[in-house]
Amino acid sequence: MSAQVSSSDNSRFWRIAPVIFVLFWAGGYSFAKLGLPHIQPMTLLALRYGLAVLVLLPVLLVHRPVWPRGARHWGVIAVSGFVIQCLYFGGAYVAMENGMNAGTTALIMALQPILVAALAPLVGAGRGTRRLWVGLVLGLLGVVIVILGGRTIGPSPWVAVPFAFLALLAITGATLFEKWHGLRTDPVVGGIVQYAVGFVVMAPIALWFGLGQIDWKGELFISLGYLVFANSIISISLYVGLVQRGDATRISSLMYLVPPLAMLLAWAILGEVMTPTAMAGMAVCVTGVWLVNRATRRPA
């Protein structure tokens, strides 16, 4: 009986997990923007990863995780951590540091679901149906409408563009990699290893380019708190877990909801403008994600 209850609770959790993931991931844009005026991007990432490791280590004392078995499993976690924490976040932060508008960056990242759907057959997934492709295109169209409606598209220096596309390829590759290797990892162990890798890589880079002056204001503390707990520990664990448990294209389609929700949260947190056109685009995004979910839903 207890096993059945536990299984039911676990199933219920993973049904609501996509909602938690999208909300927390989308909030990362606003809270990163809140902190970046007080700290350099690479320093922010190094602090974020180091603090995440310190937060997760005590959890091992009470959690008793299932440890990875074999060098391959440990290597998989490390590679995934490097691609997501260093290449994806690093590329996106450097692109914005070099003058790329946040809306432009979000639009480039919104290409990810289509790339995942196109490349999914390479890792053993079937080809997409017409409904799936309609949903993917609708989702992308919705993102474009949201960003144009919010007037967040602006010119970007060419030096920033390669970093944005590096981030796009990184999150796409990480999604396909997680689906390909087929290994499930305890989220606490996975988080510690991934953030340790991120810290080991980013800390020397931050030192190399100069840490710069850190302005220890309340906004920076709020930013770091959110990025460590909500964005790093919860969001990343949920995303990897969802990809390992479900269809990679369906989970990637959730990324279409991130730019609209990010703008909505920026309106609530930072006072940025949210126009009726952007709201209409959000509705188109939701429709596209709904179609992708219908197209990839497995029969009971």
Please indicate the count of domains: 1
Low-confidence stretches: 1-8
Element pattern in H and E: HHHHHHHHHHHHH
Q: Count the helices. How many? A: 13
* Sheet/helix structural class: mainly alpha
Radius of gyration: 19 Å
Note the beta-strand portion: under 5%
N-to-C CA distance: 22 Å
Form type:
globular
SSE map:
Elements: H1 2-35, H2 41-56, H3 59-63, H4 71-97, H5 102-109, H6 112-119, H7 130-149, H8 161-181, H9 187-209, H10 218-245, H11 248-253, H12 258-270, H13 276-296
Helix pairs in contact: 1-10, 1-12, 2-4, 2-9, 2-10, 4-8, 4-9, 5-7, 6-8, 7-13, 9-10
Question: How is this structure best described in words?
Answer:
The protein contains 13 helices and no strands. Residues 1-8 have low confidence and may be disordered. The protein is 77% helix and 0% strand. Helix 2 (41-56) crosses helix 10 (218-245). The chain has one domain (17-296).
Overview in brief:
With 300 residues, the chain is mostly helical.
Structure keywords:
single chain; 300 residues; mainly alpha; 13 helices; globular; disordered N terminus
